[in-house]
Write a structure and sequence with these properties.
This protein is an all-alpha fold. The chain has 4 helices and no strands. Bound molecules: fe (ii) ion (2 copies).
């Protein structure tokens, strides 16, 4: 049973972004399951690699779309994406420095991102795009 079930509250008006968000939810669920099985720290390298790729492409896709449609809050949104990327960089650094319990910190970080960003700022562009695409 996954810890996070995809809910319609997560939905945005751009299907590609829903797919990308679902992928992030699946990574969080994988992390949770690995932690439960006592294999959380072994999963971290793969997870961090996937998150780096995810952040680079998903954020770029969203920003390009917002830019194309002249979404007025693009800069605020871009800043939050940049914060995510810096925090992720920090987690990667901590991983290579063998910091312990990093999986718990990462789990919290992703969980907060899901509720704060995907249910927050991403919903704002979603509303803005409604009827425009
Ligand atoms: Fe976003
Ligand atoms: Fe997003």
């Amino acid at each position: 049973m996954p810890i996070f079930e995809w809910d319609k509250d997560f939905e945005v008006t751009v299907e590609t972004f829903n797919e990308q968000h679902r992928y992030l939810v699946s990574l969080i669920n994988n992390l949770y399951n690995e932690m439960k099985a006592g294999k959380g720290s072994a999963y971290m390298e793969k997870l961090l690699d996937e998150l780096v790729v995810y952040a680079a492409s998903h954020f770029q896709n969203e920003e390009e779309m917002m830019d194309k449609h002249q979404f007025p809050e693009l800069e605020i949104h871009r800043n939050e994406h940049e914060n995510f990327k810096s925090r992720l960089k920090e987690l990667c650094k901590n991983y290579y420095n063998k910091k312990s319990k990093l999986e718990i910190e990462t789990f919290q970080f992703l969980k907060n991102w899901l509720s704060r960003h995907i249910l927050g700022l991403d919903q704002k562009y979603s509303e803005f795009f409604r009827g425009k695409l």
